[in-house]
Amino acid sequence: YVSLCDNEKTGCKARELKSVYVDAVGQFLKLIFHENHVNKYNVYNQVALVAVNIIGDPADFGDESNITSREKLIDHYLGHNSEDPALEGTCTGKSDYISPLDDLAFDMYQDPEVAQIIRKLDERKREAVQKERYDYAKKLKQAIADLQKV
């Protein structure tokens, strides 16, 4: 459940950005809008969604050989102990890291050219951390912060 602002403070002249983290496995995303906010500008009781940004890894449920792994995923989310070490920490055994640069908010508030530069610097920073070049990674992190301030 996510509630949105009624927008009275801005005189109904602003949009609202919400980011929601959902730790789940599935094939579909269902969004249900319960009610609109009543105001003098919304005479037809309309609700609008501008964008949805879904960040995750694709789950292939089409293959019959995936039934046992699907059951293990269900057990994992229900809190049952799983024998599969690949399921520890995450549902697919992949990294939990989701870059804030993948968030829709990042693209909304950054110049597109600067955003590309920041993404390249972030990729170099992650490579530097993997190679244990922490001083270089720290400099890249500072450069990213400086670009985001500008």
From TrEMBL:
Domain Centrosomal protein CEP104 N-terminal: start-end pairs: 1-56
Signal peptide boundaries: none
Top-level division of the source organism's lineage: Eukaryota
Transmembrane segment boundaries: none
Coiled-coil regions listed: none
GO CC, alphabetical: cilium
InterPro entries associated with the record: CEP104-like, CEP104_N
Name of this chain's protein: Centrosomal protein CEP104 N-terminal domain-containing protein
Record organism: Mustela putorius furo (European domestic ferret)
